[in-house]
Amino acid sequence: MDYFLSPGNKGRYVLYCEHSEKNDDGTTFSLPYKFLALLIPIMALHLFVKAQTVTLNVKNAPFVQVAEEISKQTKYDFSYNDRILQKTKPVTLKLVKEPLSMALQKLLSEQPLSFEIRDGLIIITEKKPSVADLDPGLQSDVNGHITNEAGLPLEAVAIKVKNTNFGTRTNKNGEFTIPGKYANSMLQIHLLGYADMEIGAQRARVVTLALAAADLNEVNVVVNTGYLKIDRRHLTSAVTTIKMDDIRTPGVNTIDKLLEGRVPGMMFMQNSGQVGAAPKLRIRGTSTILGNREPLWVLDGIVLTDPVNVDPQQINDLDFVNLLGNAIAGLNPDDIEQIDVLKDASATALYGAKAGNGVIVITTKKGKPGKPMISYSMSSGYTRRPRYSDRSMYMMNSRERMDVSKEMVERGMQYNNITQWSGYERALQDYYGGKIDYNEFKRLSDYYANVNTDWMGLLTQDAFTQNHTLNLSGGSNDIKYYSSIGYLNENGVIKGESNKRYSSMLNVTADYKKFMAQIAFNGSYQVRNYSPSDLGIMNYAYNTSRTIPAYNDDGSLFYYPQMNGSLKYNYNILNERDNSNDHTDLISANIRALLKWRVMKGLDVEGTFAVGVSSNAREMYYTKNSFYIFKLRADQTTRWDLAPVGGELQKNDTRNRNYTGRLQVNYLTTVGQSGKHSLTATGGVEVKSNAYNGFNITRRGYFTEMGGYFDIVPTTNSAYYQQWMTTKDALGYFNRQLTNDFAWFSTAGYSYDNRYMLNIHIRGEQSNLFGSRTNNRFLPIWAVSGRWNMKNDVFSNVSWINDIAFKGSWGWQGNMLPGQSANMVIRQNLNTNPYYNETSSNIVNYPNPDLKWEKTSSFNAGVEFSILKGKLNGSFAYFYKRTKDAFLDKTVSEINGVEKYVINSGNLENKGIEVSLSIRAIDNTAMGSSKRGFVWRIDPQLGQVLNKVLNRAINNRNNVLVDNITYSNFLDGTVQLSGKPLNTFYSYKFKGLSPVDGSPIFYGAEPEMSDDYNKKYSQMKREDVYLSVMSESGRREPFIQGGISNYFGWRNFGLSCNVTYSFGNKIRMLKIASGYASTIAYPQQNLRKEFVRRWRRPGDENYTNIPGLQANNNLNTPWWNVYPASAYSFAGSVYDMYDNSDVRLVSANYVKLQSASFKYNFDEKMIRKLGFASAYVSITGTNLFTITNRLLKGQDPAQSGQSPNINLSVRPTYTGSINVSF
Fold it and tell me: Which residues cross the membrane (predicted)?
């Protein structure tokens, strides 16, 4: 080899090897960009955009002069020898902001020279003669354009000229250019997720190449586990990989909701349609009883934390509506490249604790080499509010409700303890009292029968949503960048509710020789407004009689009396809504930095550091004009008044700070001359800290109408108010939680001839949360997994099998429970205990030194295949998981200062199957034409998880695993019974209606057998009594879920739809009889239309199971609630029993059209004339319709009927969107 010292820019010299080779990884580096990217990434981004373009205007200039000018503009040095300069010609050239590579091509097009950019240098060499040089017809460049099946441009497609070292990639618009000297060559086209292709360069001239979907394992799909990036052909773990482009649905604005029906083995439950409500996700069942059952979210290898540390039991409650936001609520789906769902122990082992519920790894978009590309997307959506005409609103109108009142009058029924009158009853009371005459009573009766107040229209609205995203990306081989800003404005269907999100992201990657650095930032600001949950807006809309008007004739609000004990207050829900608010400001930011050192071939060291901060400021207020404040004023006397002045402000602030530090060494080598033996190893250490600091306080005397002013409450007012001022809520209190973890991890892998793979993962973790004993503080987690690529072995000669592989894993996962400590924490109260006349203290945390980790063993086996030239791809998997030492609550004596204590006592098991298919039913993509033929692709997720009776608590010593249960635990499914699935619930056994009065009768509670039952039940344990009067109803969580997505494409048109399904759980129909203060409804209460079919006279019990109106007050105090039977009371009234009986059970199975989207890609030639690189428009509908049990009468199957509150159903949304790039 010949080496030369050649003059560089500004008198510098660089060492030049005329026949040097590229680096092993094919990368080149630039020191200036490296320096800028590490110190000030935004400045680097700005400088880079300017530096990668060239502007020139020269005429007959010497080649050296032109080279120096380009070097000055780009900071790249030229390297050449004097021999070459003698062959150059004068340069006449005009360039305006031309990309560097294109500028060099034009500069050398008339010169006998070629160039190569390597290691920050532009290396000039002599052009070697070729056949193309002898044929001028081949000198023109070959321009091409690559799209996917939907007609969208594909970026970063690798195009290589076969048998040469020349390669390039498509830009953001899917465009590429091949030098004319390769016009007769074959092009090799490759992109992750698509089938490799070879095509002649001549056929690629200015045409659209549509790449067919790839076989499952045929292409080099990269799976990101957060710690490692693995070629899918070598993957031994259970991982589902999803490209965001495949699931992005306009109108669905959070990542978790996009996963519905897309991941085999994941259960998706959305119990509310309120704006900002987070769904519940379960991956392969439930691995903990008391701990958080949600999966772990990871962003670019860093674990994300929730902004508020909500009690796990509250999060696990299937009726809890999470409006607080979760770890990914601030992320813009438009910034996401890929999602990997890690399921088994092998995939999640490196995450240690908290990974027992599965891990969802999010990979953000990164910049790619090419000129700067700007993209803008905008969508506007319309969400339809509920209406009384909908099937879901199976409630009485005014006339139907008034007929119930008339029947009560005709039967001489009396309200019990009623002191509030409204509607028809109010008019009747006034008539009987002589306040109005019959004509006025008749007029009012007709009015109330036809008023039909539209509470739904008054309290809900057709809502509109806007979403905007602007991003800039580009780069070179040395530095790449991606940045974006986003704005989301979602108006809630419930009036006054909204969710706004401002988001930003910046990713910069820099390479310099043996070093690679990444720095990333993402931040968000969210503003949420809700009505306080105790207003029960949807409850009111459903359950308030439509005979009650909302406004007077003059347009003022109509008030009716609402009771608080023995006191009346004028009530109007619109007034309550306008005089209260629940407001949250959430700010979050995360910074991640990674530095990798490629020590030598196959060996690199990388360090990662990340910091995340968030601030959640929640303010909930009630003004002095609200019913909430009225209740605090009691009888308006000085002594009892708890809110003498103004309203109330409840302020809850939570700040989170977390950091992660990781040092990791990766090693890869091959053994043997043939390289068939491959060895990989990874090892490292990690430290994590997560701290929550919260402060809560309640202040009264608040005037929001005066700009948030607090008035001084005189000390002479209200002895009870002065006492309240000494409580924890009034004084304010802190909530602090600190979790520190230290871990080491290691992996080792072996592969033989791309046929057999074996991997071992191990992680040791220590936490401050658990006992003082060393063996309890340290948790080793390990997993072993393997893969057999049978296509490369026993099926190598079977032509119709493109790929087939078997893989399996076994290992352990762990889980920890926050809020536990080996130390006792005692808080001294400031006020004096009135009984002892001394200060007292409360135990905040009882020491638990013996608490250990929950440990879950996990087995996974599966087959992946691709057959018929990739037309049918799929996978089958079976899993089995067993958790031991599960956390359970144990009741202890109150002498300890606490009522319950967490122990390791339970066992759980889950098992099931997963099926995933991808079918290219029709593929008429025209490869040699710019027009695409018809394409039909089906991607069903069939079967999903089957764990019908397998997600159970196993305990051979006790039937009931928790000893402080009530009958409510059986009814709502929160009791843990051995041999039963978690969330198994029970119902009273309906026997029929009484032929005498139409009241419901139940097995085990017949009134005529009360003496016998009293003797029997008094000798039994409470749980045995409950099981005697109840029967098992089923489980509240589905055990089969999935989805079937279809895509149809033709020319520039595309139609996609996703149908989801859910089977296996039961729900109760909405309450029809209970919830009233007596056996009949109060005047202001509405009833479901089912009540029209109620029992009215003897004999009706043979035709209906709806109980009738009752005047018997004794039904509210049944025999089991009277001493001595009250010691084992198993229900409230018979009407409570009826609404919780098996006759009100319905299957919650459903099939739903989750989304349908129609897209049109504008013609490329037309778009280019307008200055755009690409553009498309789409119309999308989500939650369009649901097929479910007809007995639900339109009730959303996602609502259990168990909750005391009726939630807003998931509403249909229609969205139009446009996306342009330039």
Answer: none
Other Cβ atoms within 10 Å of 65 Cβ, number: 11
Q: Which of 486, 516, 517, 487 is nearest to 500 (CA)?
A: 487
d(CA 792, CA 808): 18
CB-CB contact of 359 with 298 (8 Å):
yes
Is the four-CA dihedral 277, 283, 286, 289 of positive or negative sign? Answer: negative
For 447-470, the pLDDT digits (tens) are: 989 999 999 999 999 999 999 999
Sheet holding 296-299, edge to edge: 239-243, 336-342, 359-364, 296-299, 302-303
Which of 757, 607, 606, 603 minimizes the C-alpha distance to 667?
603
Contacts of 580 (CB under 8 A, 6+ apart): 531, 532, 535, 620, 621, 622, 623, 626, 628
Fill in the amino acid letter for 855: K
Interval 65-118: pLDDT, tens: 888 888 888 878 787 777 777 778 888 888 877 777 778 877 887 788 888 776
- To the nearest 10°, the Cα dihedral for 65, 71, 76, 81? 10
**Exposure string over 1121-1147, b if 16+ CB within 10 A, otherwise e:** eeeebeebbbbbbbbbbbbbbbbbbbb
The per-residue pLDDT for range 939-982, each reduced to its tens digit, is 887 655 554 333 444 444 445 555 678 899 999 988 888 778 88
Residue 761 CA to its chain's centroid (Å): 28
The share of the chain scoring above pLDDT 70, in percent, equals: 83
3-state SS string for 842-901: EEEECCCCCCCCEEEEEEEEEEEEEECCCCEEEEEEEEEEEEEEEEEEEECCHHHCCCEE
Distance (Å, rounded) from C-alpha 259 to C-alpha 295? 13
Q: What are phi and psi of 1215, to 5 degrees?
A: -130, 135
pLDDT (tens digit per residue) in 250-281: 999 999 999 999 999 999 999 899 999 999 99
Exposure b/e, 461-480, CB count within 10 A at least 16 = b? bebebebebebbbbbbbbbb
Report how far Cα 1184 is from the mean position of its chain's Cα atoms.
20
Q: How far is CA 731 from the centre of its chain?
A: 36
- Helices (H) and strands (E) counted in the chain, each on its own, are 25, 57
Beta strands in 943-1096 (DSSP E): 952-953, 984-988, 990-993, 1000-1002, 1030-1035, 1040-1050, 1053-1063, 1066-1068
Alpha carbons 16 and 7: distance in angstroms, whole number: 10
Cα 1146 to Cα 1028, 1065, 1188, 1191, 1197, distances in angstroms = 22, 9, 10, 7, 9
Q: Write out the two tokens for 1074.
A: 């209970």
Residues composing the chain: 1222
Contact 295, 265 (CB under 8 A): no
Amino acid at 956: N
Cβ contact 201:178 at 8 Å: yes
Give the HSE-up count for residue 445: Cα atoms under 13 Å, Cβ half-sphere: 15
Nearest to 789 by CA among 859, 865, 677: 865
In the chain the domains, ranked by start, together with CATH numbers, are 1-128 (3.55.50.30), 129-211 (2.60.40.1120), 222-368 (2.170.130.10), 467-537+548-1047 (2.40.170)
Contact (Cβ atoms closer than 8 angstroms) between residue 75 and residue 51: yes
Report d(CA 824, CA 847) in Å as an integer: 5
Residues 6+ apart with CB under 8 A from 275: 463, 490, 491, 492, 493, 494, 497, 498, 499
Query: Token digits for 846?
Result: 């009882």
Tokens of 525: 């600001």
Report CA 903 to chain centroid distance, whole Å: 31
3-class SS at 991?
strand
Cα dist from 325 to 251, 305, 363, 655, 746, whole Å: 18, 11, 20, 14, 34
